[in-house]
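Q: My collaborator sent me two sequences in one message, no labels, and asked for predicted structures for both. Can we handle them in order? The first one she listed is below.
A: Yes, handling them in the order given. First sequence, followed by its structure tokens:
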Amino acid sequence: HLESLRLIHCLHVTGSGIRHLKDLTHLRRLVLLGVNLSDIAFQHCATIKPLAHLSLMGSKKINGSGVKHLHDHQLLKELTLDMCDNCVLDGKKFSGVCVPIHLEALHVHSVTDDGLISLKRIKTLQSFKVRNGANLTVMKLR
């Protein structure tokens, strides 16, 4: 009854390989750090029904466009996409509209003003962390 899985620098694990995890009926926490993932991983993570915490960190291929597959995930409370250099919460291809509406924590690599504004619809969000806020301006944050 595996509840937590953490894979670090397992370079042969791919997004399509994640599909095999859907049979882990007790998996609540999945942490993949420095794994060779693309946005297809989100589609397969969405099939892991008990998943509450998902952390996909350090993948250069993730750009955030696949987050939309998590939108209807009922139990996901925390999503971490830190150190994914190409993943920018920009309010367009990756926005607050894509993520589950009941998300409590979101951690991203980078965000723009429009991306931050798009998070207003997530009323349950308690924690929001950004590694690189270089795209934010003070004027839009008012």
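Q: And the one she listed second?
A: Here it is, processed independently of the first:
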Amino acid sequence: SKQINTQSLIGLEQIRHQKVLDVGCGGGILAESLSRLGAVVTAIDPSLENITVAKEHSSMDYMTKNINFRQCAVESIVQERELFDMVCVMEVVEHVDNPEAFLYECAQCVAPGGSLFISTINKSFKGYLLGIFAAEYLLQAVPRGTHEW
């Protein structure tokens, strides 16, 4: 029988009460997961449509209804000088015009001793096939031209 490695689960407790910024939150999937783990989440996206969907979905669960969803860019958070224990930038970098400037702005939101987590499509042939060609052309899960390559 399989056993759960509780050593790795103990680390999840450290997320409780941490201030987290989810940059480019889309429909709010990561924000909801972090909220369920006890984080205090602010989730931002420049798209009103994304924020509307995320707010609607999260309002159905008492564990995620307190997420602070905002329609804005990360530059607004920088101007407000709000800092976070964790800043998450998941699958967003490939959508911005100036990745270096964007990531610099994201880093400005990290509190001293905090962490910046970044994930993006690998710039390889496999990354292109799975992340862009499949999503945009085969599955048509996102509009063509969504990703910058």
